[in-house]
Specification:
By secondary structure, the chain is mainly alpha-helical. The chain contains 21 helices and no strands. Helix 19 packs parallel to helix 21 and helix 20 packs antiparallel against helix 21.
Length: 394
């Protein structure tokens, strides 16, 4: 550390970086990775290859080097009892690990994702594997056309992911539990999900959707096609906001497989009609309630009740995954009943408002007429008083 701190460029960088490294915080030194004699004062003796010193660690040797500690359960338990110790075993099953074993040094290993001398905890926002930064870290290779050309792998995944609902939840809403690359592909055992298992992968988060999909007529059809599951309708990296337009219209996803006149096309149109009807009813009810509220009327209970209608709408949208019109119709009808109830409450509140305004106007008119009558009476009395002759001598 003392020697390299006085050097320049890449020879000084490790010292600067290591100040923020989690290993430095726990008392590990250069010799724990690079070997050599940590007790020798003479640099040549300290960096003696006979003592195991390695100034440069070959890329193919990096995973095994990291695993000397990270696969040692007793050692890791001292510092982080819940830390997994199977990272190397998982890495060897990954696409990266398998290619590295063949001598392909262009694939990612531990230091490509975690860095080298400034390794930080995953929960550190500056870590390259922090949930918000992980997609960009993966993209350093996977969005590089020149790097990926030998593997004949597309490089548009990161760009598509940044248009998705998952990226929106992660980056805009700050939901660190939102899916990133590792959520679907794994981290140390990174591999693309098999086509036939996509629904199960999505189902790790979207449990209810998976259950409904498994009961739908799509499940056996997609299975016969070789799988694909959720991605056939929702895509994979560029998952957009689901909406009614996916069922019917010019951009309908259903139209990719179903003719408009087919049973499937008719079912999609029916479901779209039901969902549109519910959304329109709830929106109209919202408008009435908002007018009543802005007018100062007490409509807190129907506004709260309106939440039940919105929940029914969510249930109806979820029920689409069964692809059964009856399954969608049930929550839609529940929502329509709520919307009708809350709209009536809002309209009644507006009628009460109008009645109060008429009553207030009549009251004000009565007051004005009364005041005018009093004024005229006073004027009359004053006129009579001025017409009476005053007594003489007074």
């Amino acid at each position: 550390m003392e020697c390299h701190a006085n050097m320049d460029g890449t020879l000084k960088a490790p010292v600067t970086d290591y100040a923020n490294d989690i290993h430095a915080r726990h008392g590990f030194s250069c010799a724990d990775c690079h070997g050599g004699d940590r007790n020798a004062d003479d640099p040549e003796a300290a960096m003696n290859p006979a003592k195991g010193f390695k100034g440069h660690v070959a890329r193919t040797a990096v995973p095994a080097l990291c695993a000397r500690c990270h696969s040692d359960a007793a050692l890791m338990h001292r510092f982080k009892p819940q830390q997994r110790v199977d990272q190397l075993a998982l890495y060897l099953t990954s696409v990266h690990g398998k290619r590295l074993a063949t001598g392909d040094t262009a694939v990612a290993n531990c230091v490509d994702c975690h860095s080298v001398h400034n390794i930080r905890e995953v929960k550190d926002p500056l870590s390259p594997v922090y949930p918000l930064k992980l997609p960009e870290t993966c993209a350093r290779c996977h969005a590089d056309a020149a790097h990926m050309k030998p593997y004949k792998i597309a490089t548009n995944q990161f760009a598509e992911y940044r248009t998705s609902v998952h990226w929106e939840a992660l980056s805009k809403r700050g939901d660190l539990s939102a899916p990133n690359c590792a959520s679907c592909h794994g981290n140390h055992g990174a591999a693309p999900p098999q086509v036939a298992s996509v629904a199960e992968v999505c189902g790790t988060c979207h449990v209810l959707f998976e259950e409904m999909y498994n009961k739908s007529p799509h499940k056996p059809v997609f299975a016969a096609m070789g799988g694909g599951g959720c991605t056939i309708c929702h895509s994979n990296h560029g998952i957009r906001h689901p909406d009614i337009g996916m069922l019917a219209g010019s951009g309908a996803v259903c139209a990719q497989c179903h003719e408009a006149t087919s049973a499937g096309g008719a079912a999609a149109a029916q479901m779209a009609g039901l969902l549109t009807k519910l959304d329109t009813a709830l929106t109209q009810s919202d408008a009435v309630l908002n007018r009543a509220h802005d007018s100062g009327m007490e409509v807190s209970e129907p506004i709260l009740r309106q939440m039940d209608g919105r929940q029914a709408q969510v249930k109806a949208l979820v029920a689409m995954h069964e692809f059964q019109v009856a399954a969608v119709a049930k929550p839609v009808n529940e929502g329509l009943a709520v919307a009708a109830e809350t709209r009536r409450a809002g309209e009644k509140a507006l009628q009460d408002r109008d009645s109060r305004r008429v009553g207030l106007a009549l009251s004000l008119l009565t007051i004005v007429i009364t005041m005018l009558g009093l004024w005229m009476a006073i004027r009359s009395l004053e006129s009579k008083a001025s017409a009476v002759p005053k007594p003489a001598g007074r």
